[in-house]
Design a protein that fits this description.
118 residues, 0% strand, mainly alpha, single chain
């Protein structure tokens, strides 16, 4: 009877050892799967980081382009102001010339009238 009990205990220990071995292998497999998943997640985060860096670089480039465009617009605005001033000066000069021409014509007419009298 003692032999049967010892055999049963030994068999139970063998079965438990086998179950423990199987459970240990399953646990290791699951840890390996989890580790792979973390590696995938880490790669995704690296990709996201790269995209953020690219986006940041594009933002900085766009910001610099806007600064350059604003500078050009300021230059264009200054040129327009200069042209406006020059056009105003030309218009004023033309007005003076027209007035002088009108006065000259009046004077010529007056001289002609005087010459026609004599």
């Amino acid at each position: 009877m003692a032999e049967i009990t010892n055999e049963m205990i030994l068999q139970a220990i063998k079965e438990l050892a086998e179950q423990l071995k199987n459970h240990s292998e399953e646990t290791n497999n699951r840890f390996e799967q989890i580790n792979q998943r973390f590696e995938q997640i880490d790669r995704r985060f690296e990709q996201i980081d790269q995209r953020f860096e690219q986006t940041d670089q594009q933002f900085e480039q766009t910001k610099q382009q806007l600064v350059e465009i604003n500078e050009r617009l300021d230059q264009v605005e200054q040129k327009i102001e200069e042209m406006d001033k020059q056009l105003t000066d030309v218009a004023n000069g033309q007005k003076i010339l027209v007035e002088e021409l009108f006065e000259n014509k009046k004077e010529i007419k007056r001289v002609k009238n005087i010459l026609n009298i004599y």
